[in-house]
Prior knowledge:
Elements: H1 2-17, H2 28-47, H3 52-85, H4 94-100, H5 105-115, H6 124-128, E1 163-185, E2 191-216, E3 219-237, E4 247-256, E5 260-266, E6 276-284, E7 324-335, E8 338-349, E9 352-358, E10 364-371, E11 375-385, E12 390-401, E13 405-406, E14 409-410, E15 417-429, E16 435-443, E17 451-456, E18 459-460
Helix pairs in contact: 1-2, 1-3, 2-3, 2-5, 3-5
Amino acid sequence: MQILARYFHAINLIMKETEDMRLPSLPNTIIAASLAFAFQCTATAQQQNGSVEELTRAVTELRARIDQQQRLIEALTREAEGRAATSQPVPAAPGLDVQRGTGSHIAAITAAGMAGAELDVSEPDKAAEAVKPVGQAPKQDGRPPEIAPPFEQPGILTQKGKYVLEPSLQFGYSSSNRVALVGYTVIPALLIGLIDVREVKRNTFTGALAARTGLTNRFEVEMKVPYVYRSDATVSRELFTGTAVERVFNTSGMGLGDVEFAGRYQLNQGGPDKPYYIAGLRVKSRTGTDPFSVVTDCTTRCVGENVTGTGLPLKLPTGSGFYSLQPTLTWLFPSDPAIFFGTLSYLHSIKRNDVSRRVLNGESENIGDLAPGDVFGFNFGLGLALNDKASVSLGYDHSSIGRMKQNGSNVPGSVRTQLGTLLVAYSYRLSDKRSLNVSVGAGVTRDTPDVSLSLRVPTTF
């Protein structure tokens, strides 16, 4: 009770001593500082068993500081009136500056008053420097947020004037079995004729170097140069050779793959709880080894009558053999703390005329006009930031490949193929300019590679 009594006694003294001052014009922060100082003085006097004289000295000291602050406010008022007269921008309101923590004059006064510091009222700018900004809000450039990329296309556009160099390594493994029955059955489960059984195991390593740059904050271009190594092992019990005889056919190939060029443009501004839309176009060349230029194990021909060989290539190609165009539309939807994303794509391969295949004796077997089936694709996923450096993404990628046509007709035995892959990706930011991305894919359909692994290290310059 004695402390409270002395507290209110000190308040009354302050009010009496400052009746001649314009307290209503003082900021609330100065009044709060004064009251806090008065309470501190009261508590200090109570702890030291002080007298009313000590409180009086404290109030006198407080009044001297209030006089200094009042003179500083008057100086700031004159400065503001001078800027208004010369059409210069006037500083923001004191309360807003204090909330922003941008080091305004009033924030400096309040902090100095609470700390009991002496202010030089002759130079207001130096007083404002007593408190430095505590931070600055990040710039909003309207670009999509960054995620761990589970798919080939990146999820964030490159800033204007920046360059990204991305080395990558990808591994894929697939296996398939094929059984061909040539004959007739007398009763179910009893075949009279020949059997062709093949088991193919395929390993593919692709090292690539991609470079992209932002022409604007919403448009980037990219070039990708791959180098491919492939190896196949085929175990077969072939037609016309007796079912007890097995043959292992090993082949491999390495070289430059198909160079790709791409461009991506952000269609809208986007933002929190607003989707981003990014349109893209990818162009694939024929720089890799053509599948029709490698030599097969056929002596004279691989199709039709008098077939002499399996038709398997003695050296594996590193390219597709067709020019391709692929437009895409990607969307990203930030919903803190997750990011939803997805892509729609369509791949069209340009038709080739008068295609020929090479056989063992050096001759060429004419195949005719070939048009690969178009590919419709889509993917979707979810990205989640674990902290300021690590993130994880889950996704699914699906492609539907149409039937190939030869001389305007569907190739016999060619059917629409469905490829589905589940993917998990991890990303870790090694530094401000470099990050590490790892993704794992598992095939969920028969024709999809069983497993795929990829490693990317994008570096910004």
